[in-house]
Amino acid sequence: MTFKSYHIGILLRILILVILLGTAVFCFFKTWYLAGSFSLLGIIFAIYNLFRFLSRRFEVIDDFFESVKYRDFSRQYLAENKTKDIRGFYEGFNTVNEVVREINSEKETQYLYLQKILELVDIGILAYEMESGKVLWSNESFQNTLAFPSFKNISFVSSRNPQVFELIFNKLYPKPTSAELKVQKETIKVLLSNSIFQIGEKTFKLVVLHNIEDTLNKTESEAWKKLLSVMTHEIMNSIAPISSLANTLKFQVAMHQENPAENLLDIEDLDAGLSSIEKRSEGLLKFAKTYRSLNKVTSLNLEKVRVKEMFRDLENLMKPQLKDNNVALDFLLADEALEIEIDTYLMEQVLINLILNAVEASAEKENPKVQVTAGKKMDGRLFIRVADNGTGISEEILDEIFIPFFTTKKEGSGIGLSLSKQIMTLHGGKIQIESKHGLGTSMLLVFS
């Protein structure tokens, strides 16, 4: 609409100028010199009016462009008492200025918001122009990590600590890389990463510096606490049945000594019990050594073992302890000649963990029962199943029970199932779990 009125104004002035020119020519042709002189004055005024009309509008536009050049969008153009077309220009300019001010305000808000976030993070961030070394922005964490005051150019770091300057600014770290920095006569461990980007003709580098010294110390301390807790828990799991079996044997020997005639001592039972204690003690020592370096184990002490013999040893070891809990423990084996190639000591540790978990889960049932079975699947793979008729495991935590240190027990370490899974992985096997809340749980060890 503004340009339409502008075009009409120009056309009208050109039309008046053409009419005045025609009138002047006609008057001089008729020798009407006085009328011709007035026509010439009219022509001069019309030309001046056209020039003034055009120049005023160009001045308005040029003034707006000047404001844009110097990024001055605070000006308010007064459109009152102006011609219709100029008033349209002013209203348009005011609208543009208002929109730009809103955009700038939003950008400033976003910048302050981002700046506040970067100030709050404990990771050092710095951006600088590579050619001049001028620092565009850095947060306090970056300065605190290096123990430097605020600086405007990275040359300050070069003069203050050349080694740190060389490590941080003169090397590329496309991926987070661990490094050691010497700061105030101390060595700290950090993660370094940087990236180069270009804006226009200038090249910039963004440097990210993460001090991981405190994190490593805290993690190491927590790891030691958990390790001690885990070792205590696992050792107690093995010592408890050994202690229970030893007390049973000691009681039998004491009764025989008091009254040999009425309390005959079964040498075979005694020998079997002592053999179980001996084997489990050796297994406990092996477990302690293996757990200490479990992440470094690349080979196992594999041997062909009769499943029947392993079940018999476990039964001798576990049943005396389970009598007090009134839990029925049954070992079922369809093929008594079944053999399996395993590390006996580690696999016994796995089965003890699973049996104790099953006993605890079924202890509150009216007729608690735990069954340990072994056999072959349809595809020929060997399996050992530990099943109970206990409370089962809720679906919400079914996927989390193998996570290290995850436990729902008040006194549990949360490592038993995780460790069992690792031992099965070392054997090239896996653990599968089936559980129905309130009906029981079945833990299946499948061997390759």
UniProtKB/TrEMBL annotation:
What are the transmembrane regions? Answer: 7-26, 32-51
Q: Which Pfam families match?
A: HATPase_c (PF02518)
Recorded catalytic reaction(s): these are: ATP + protein L-histidine = ADP + protein N-phospho-L-histidine
Q: Which GO terms describe its molecular function?
A: kinase activity
In terms of InterPro entries, this protein maps to: HATPase_C_sf (IPR036890), HATPase_dom (IPR003594), His_kinase_dom (IPR005467), Sig_transdc_His_kin-like_C (IPR004358)
The alphabetized UniProt keywords are: ATP-binding, Kinase, Membrane, Nucleotide-binding, Transferase, Transmembrane, Transmembrane helix, Two-component regulatory system
Which Enzyme Commission number(s) are on file for it? 2.7.13.3
What is the enzyme's class at the highest EC level?
Answer: transferase
Q: Which domain of life is it from?
A: Bacteria
Q: By what name is this protein known? A: histidine kinase
Which species expresses this protein natively? Christiangramia antarctica
